[in-house]
Amino acid sequence: MLLSVSGLTHRYPGQSRNVLTGVGFDLARGDSVALTGESGSGKSTVLHFLAALDRPDQGRILFDGHDIVPLADKPAAALRRSRIALVFQQFNLVPALTVADNIALHAHLGQRFDPEWTQTLIRQLGLAELVTRYPEQISGGQQQRVAIARALALRPDLLLADEPTGNLDETASAEVLRLMFRLVAEAGSALFLVTHSQNIARQCARRLHLSGGTIRPVGS
Ligand SMILES: Nc1ncnc2c1ncn2[C@@H]1O[C@H](COP(=O)(O)OP(=O)(O)OP(=O)(O)O)[C@@H](O)[C@H]1O
């Protein structure tokens, strides 16, 4: 199992209730999962834990058999530069780097740069004309596509995405999803995607719903 999560329990300081109580699920290579839930239900909290950006009070997150919960900042950051990629709502592009350099940045740092795959992403995400520009010279939707290309360029084992198509029109959104599913299929990655859109959720192989601090499968 690529990812095996169990017993995630967390309460933010100053809160009277747990945001998560015993959350658990598995994610295999080639699998795609959509996580839905009301605003404030704890979806971003789960994503942050899976990305080792934050640590739950209790629980285990086995990534390829190793618990990432106790990881110190440095190995956690190394994991995010090599095997776990994030597409969050804040794009975090580097303002001093061109679009091309932003896209290649993490793949280079993680020594996973593949020029052919990067070119495919640039072409299919409609970024070819923009590669020499800087982030401030492109639109919000274009910045989002650059952030997605940067994450996919790494060919991550695990792709974590928070509303990845939030700023995109229908055509761009469909293309982004197509590329994510292609990565999952071709590279044997796994996709964990947070979304409010039932339409997007339905395109994933499985759906999970977060409510009252616990996760339940939807459908099937
Ligand atoms: N750093 C924090 N300190 C205290 N409370 C927090 C903190 N971060 C999140 N929370 C609270 O935890 C709950 C879950 O937040 P979270 O951002 O995970 O929800 P979400 O499901 O991602 O919401 P949305 O769909 O609106 O993005 C909310 O009630 C939020 O106010």
Automatic annotation (TrEMBL):
<dbReference type="GO" id="GO:0022857">
    <property type="term" value="F:transmembrane transporter activity"/>
</dbReference>
<protein>
    <submittedName>
        <fullName>Putative ABC transporter ATP-binding protein</fullName>
    </submittedName>
</protein>
<dbReference type="InterPro" id="IPR003593">
    <property type="entry name" value="AAA+_ATPase"/>
</dbReference>
<dbReference type="InterPro" id="IPR017911">
    <property type="entry name" value="MacB-like_ATP-bd"/>
</dbReference>
<keyword id="KW-0067">ATP-binding</keyword>
<dbReference type="Pfam" id="PF00005">
    <property type="entry name" value="ABC_tran"/>
</dbReference>
<dbReference type="InterPro" id="IPR015854">
    <property type="entry name" value="ABC_transpr_LolD-like"/>
</dbReference>
<dbReference type="InterPro" id="IPR017871">
    <property type="entry name" value="ABC_transporter-like_CS"/>
</dbReference>
<dbReference type="GO" id="GO:0005886">
    <property type="term" value="C:plasma membrane"/>
</dbReference>
<keyword id="KW-0547">Nucleotide-binding</keyword>
<feature type="domain" description="ABC transporter">
    <location>
        <begin position="3"/>
        <end position="220"/>
    </location>
</feature>
<dbReference type="InterPro" id="IPR003439">
    <property type="entry name" value="ABC_transporter-like_ATP-bd"/>
</dbReference>
<dbReference type="GO" id="GO:0016887">
    <property type="term" value="F:ATP hydrolysis activity"/>
</dbReference>
<dbReference type="InterPro" id="IPR027417">
    <property type="entry name" value="P-loop_NTPase"/>
</dbReference>
<dbReference type="GO" id="GO:0005524">
    <property type="term" value="F:ATP binding"/>
</dbReference>
<keyword id="KW-0813">Transport</keyword>
